[in-house]
Amino acid sequence: MSSELRLRVSEAADLTPAVRRFVLRDPDGGALPAYEPGAHVVVTVPAGHKRGYSLVEPGGARPREYVVCVRRDDAGRGGSASMHRDVTMGTELVVSAPANGFPLEPSPRYLFIAGGIGITPIRAMVRRLRAGGRTGVRLLYLTRSAAETPFLDEFGGPEDTVHHSDGHGPLDLWPHLAVPDDDVRVYCCGPAPLMRAVRTLTAHWRASRIHMEEFRAAGTGMSLPFTAVWAPDGRRVPVPAHLSLLAALRRAGVRVDSSCEAGVCGTCRLRVLDGEVDHRDAVSTEKERLGSMVACVSRAGSPEIVVGPYENEEPV
Ligand code: FES
Predict the structure, then answer these.
(1) Do 143 and 166 form a contact (C-beta atoms < 8 A)?
(2) Mind listing the pLDDT tens digit for each residue in 56-104?
(3) Is ligand 1 within 6 A of the CB of residue 201?
(4) Is the CB of 270 under 6 A from ligand 1?
(5) Which residues contact 265 (CB under 8 A, 6 or more apart)?
(6) Ligand 1 pocket, 296 CB below 6 A?
(7) Is 267 a pocket residue for ligand 1 (Cβ < 6 Å)?
(8) Among positive and negative, which fits the CA dihedral 100, 33, 118, 109?
(9) For the chain, what are the domain ranges?
(10) What fold is seen in the domain 226-309?
């Protein structure tokens, strides 16, 4: 797990009726751990949940602040509501050091596709790339309406398409993706249906050219059923395609702690004793991936997997 910082909120302001921007700084004014575009931090919100938020600025070696934007989700599990309700200027929050499961790779050209609040990591990338006046950085930014579009005034350039579905319907992505191009990297972040659509429409592209912020689509699409064996008592737990390992174990009466349920905090980590793992999280180190998995998003890569408790951040 990443080390934790205690940061103070120095700015909190609405960007849209549902999206609030928070600036987090070291209370003593010190520099913060480095990060690059695509990175996220895990914030322990006042209500106690851990939530992963992408950093919206391009970052660098010694950033003075972390900036996150949080969309209030009234149908969610309370993390975003707590950020909106309980966090004001001066609030201190426990924040992880940045991790990056969605890094910006070199490429002659780029096509960025952002849906709604998915603009947050994409904005950091686009700003980094365009800082030197570079072209060949196309952006498709899809939102419901102008009023619900954070950073709208930043994306009016010749390589930007900002599309509002209200009154216009969804944007047809096929003209942008029909012809695969090895000189283009496609980065997509947004709601699960958008991620699925882009994955489908780029099935004929070289896989290495397609980059999706996977943890936002956790638990959706392209999952196969498997069987989990709970090592302490040998219980066999079927995990259907539509259910996470975490949910399946709980249904079977196994207690597993969780917090973010989005693959960014590591609370639900289990020891893996046998079987292959399809890691889908954004929190595990390479070493951790050798002997453990996070149950909320990762799945078995083999028909059967044997798992057990993971304690003290070291396999027991
Ligand atoms: S609950 Fe946070 S990674 Fe699973």
Answers:
(1) no
(2) 999 999 999 999 999 998 877 788 999 999 999 999 999 999 988 889 9
(3) no
(4) no
(5) 42, 50, 52, 96, 259, 283
(6) yes
(7) yes
(8) negative
(9) 4-96, 109-217, 226-309
(10) Ubiquitin-like (UB roll) (3.10.20)
| Least confident interval from 10-24, 42-56, 131-145, 219-233 | 219-233
Q: Which tens digit of pLDDT belongs to each residue from 246-283?
A: 999 999 999 999 988 888 888 999 999 999 898 888 78
Please, are residues 236 and 227 in contact by the beta-carbon 8 Å criterion? yes
Tokens of 33: 């751990």
Architecture of domain 109-217: 3-Layer(aba) Sandwich (3.40)
* Cα–Cα distance list, 14 to 17, 68, 74 (Å): 7, 12, 16
Q: Which of 265, 292, 307 to mutate to test the pocket of ligand 1 (most atoms within 8 A of CB)?
A: 265
Percentage of residues in the chain having pLDDT higher than 70: 95
What's the confidence (pLDDT) of residue 315? 43
Identical fold for domains 4-96 and 226-309, yes or no, is no
Residue 260 CB less than 6 A away from ligand 1 = yes
Q: How far is the CA of 140 from the centre of ligand 1 (A)?
A: 30
Does the domain at 4-96 match CATH 3.20.20.140? Answer given as no
Predicted TM-score of the model (pTM) = 0.79
The pLDDT tens digits of the residues spanning 144-175 come to: 999 999 999 999 999 999 999 998 888 999 99
State which of 250, 267, 289 you would mutate to test the pocket of ligand 1, scoring each by most atoms of that ligand within 8 A of its C-beta: 267
By CB neighbour count within 10 A (0-12 exposed, 13-18 middle, 19+ buried), where does 301 fall? middle
Check pocket membership of 258 for ligand 1, CB cut-off 6 A: yes
Atom of ligand 1 nearest to the CA of 260: 2
